[in-house]
Structure formats: C-alpha cells, structure tokens
Amino acid sequence: MGHALNGSQFVVHFPQSHTLILQRRVDPKVKAFIALCNLRKIGEGSGSFNIYVFWPRMRHRNDLTGRWATMVPVEIQSCWLTQVLYPAIIASSNPDTMAYVNYTLDEWTWKAGNNKRFSGTKTTVLDSNKLKDLQKAMNHIIKDNPDELDMFGSFFFVADTRGIKGSTSMVVSEDCNPYKMLCKNYPSMDWEYMMDRQNGQLLMDLGMAFHPDPRDKEPRIGLWRLDKLHASYGAAGMNSGTIHHFNTFSNYGAMQSEMNATRAATVQLSFRSSYNLNFEIVRRPGAEIYFCDVSDAHDMNHTFISCLDGFEKMFMGATQKSYGVREELRGSGAAIKEVLLDAPKVVGISI
Prior knowledge:
Mean pLDDT: 80
Number of helices: 13
Helix content: 25-40%
Order of helices and strands: EHEEEHHHHHEHHEEHEEHEHHEH
Number of domains: 2
Oligomer: single chain
Radius of gyration: 24 Å
C-alpha cells in the first residue's frame, strides 16, 4: 500500500496474552501499512488481476524517514523465493510439470536473461486447482523452520484489478445488471466464492455517472455542488473527508471521504468519492505532477513551454465536448450487490 489512503485499510490484531484473556480485555489492534510482494498475475493488459502476498509480521517504520515500510528488500524477497515459494511450488506440482518449475533462483535468473529485450522476469504457470496445495506447502515450510522463516508467517493474499469500468459499464435501465456483466467478462474469478465471508473479504467499487443528454449538441459541463455533497455525505455517516474545489469556485468541486468505522462495520460501505468528469481532460494515470515544476515556470524553459502547449491542445479539444459527474462507492461485495438492486430506480431519473 502507498502512503496515500485509498479507502481500504488493514487492521492487525495482536495475539492476546493469557492475562488479557482472563481479564477479558479487548485485544490490541492497529491500522497498518504492511510489507508486500507481487505473487501472481491473471490475464494481460488493462483488466488483469494482480495477486500480492502480504506479511503482517514485517510491519515496521523506516529508521530514516519514519514512514511505514511497504517494499521488501531484495535479500528478503530472495529468501522468500528460495526457501518458501519455490520449494512450495515444487511440492505442489505433479511430475509432468517438474521440468518446468524445478529450478533455483540463480537458474531462474539465468533463464530469464536470455536477451536484452526480455524484462528479466520469469513467469511460472500454476494450475488453479493446485493453489490450495501451494498454500499448505508454504505454511508447512514456514512452520518447520521458525527461526529463519517466522517473519513470513500469517501471510495472506490480496487480488487487485483496475481499469475494468469500460468492460462492466452499461446504460441504466430496469433490467441492467453490472454484476452479471462482471461475472461474464471475468470468469477467471469466482465472485460468489469470494463474496462468502468465510473465504475472506471482497471489496468492490460501484461507479455511477451522470452525463449530459447526447442528443443535445450543445457542449455542457456537469459540476457537483459542495453544499449538497456535504449534506449527502453527512447523512451517510461519512467523515469530513477531503474537498477539491473546481478552479476558483467556492461551492463547486469534488469530495472524497471514508465512512465512520462503527457505521462502516454495520452497513459494509467504507469509502465514497464524487468528482467531475472534466478532470479526465488533463488526467494522466500515474502522474504525480500534472503541471510542470515551479522552477521550470520561473525559468520559462522548454519544459514550461511544452507543458503550456500540451494543456492548450487538451483544452481546445474539449471545447466541443460534454462532461458529466461521477460517484463512486466502495463496500463489501454483498453490500454492493444490494445497492445495485435499487440503483436503477435512484439514478435513472432525467433532469
């Protein structure tokens, strides 16, 4: 996880001592940034699923910066690969696949570096039916060598996907069902299984957009009114959150907020974001700075001029386009399915 919260957090519960159990005291817990490492990828390109392994026992702050450390040093990753993951893959593989997986880290590195065009990484294919066997083997390996491998204990997996709104969106109607479209377009994931709380926690984002009527040829811009958002967020039990004003307008802009923890545990909704889609004009995914650096503007150098030219190009191209507004809600899979039952009636009203 990065330093900026995105509405999803982990809470680490420390093991209770015998004294705490006898005194019936609440176990200590803390919201945590947890060390992680990429484990597996399902699919390719936009809409692919990345699976990460998290190690809560490694949570600590950087001695120099004081920030929570989430990236794992290469030495620790090598230990994980050579002493836990690779032996577990071999233990859970059948003889037919042994020739493809039975290699050391050095051997994998050599196989992956066969030419300059290759990324230096090597993918190992694992049968989905063997995933449980893999997890059992990993747990046994860690349990059998606690002195060296205890830091990898209590690991858990997180699957994450982004950029799938284009393949799961539809125009609101009485019979629309984005969840069915999600299951149809991404059959590699067992959504009903993940929704069962006995198997873990499934978080889903539901986006609802309001657009100008495409039949109206006159370009229009939709903006959220902040006073209305404040009232709506307050009624929903959201925290005060963060406000992003649109240009110099005092009562128009965007808002995002987490829900109060007590209420979130009851209604199974955790995060809400309301923003204006005209932001897509200048949005550049992955960019930390949208405009040039202050020093470039002061010097009026080539970087500054190129930045102005780019913004002018984007804004001039947007003058004949329309942009609406969008609302996003994050919650458990079961809660989002429930919201979808009434969503067409609530948002399908033309103004």
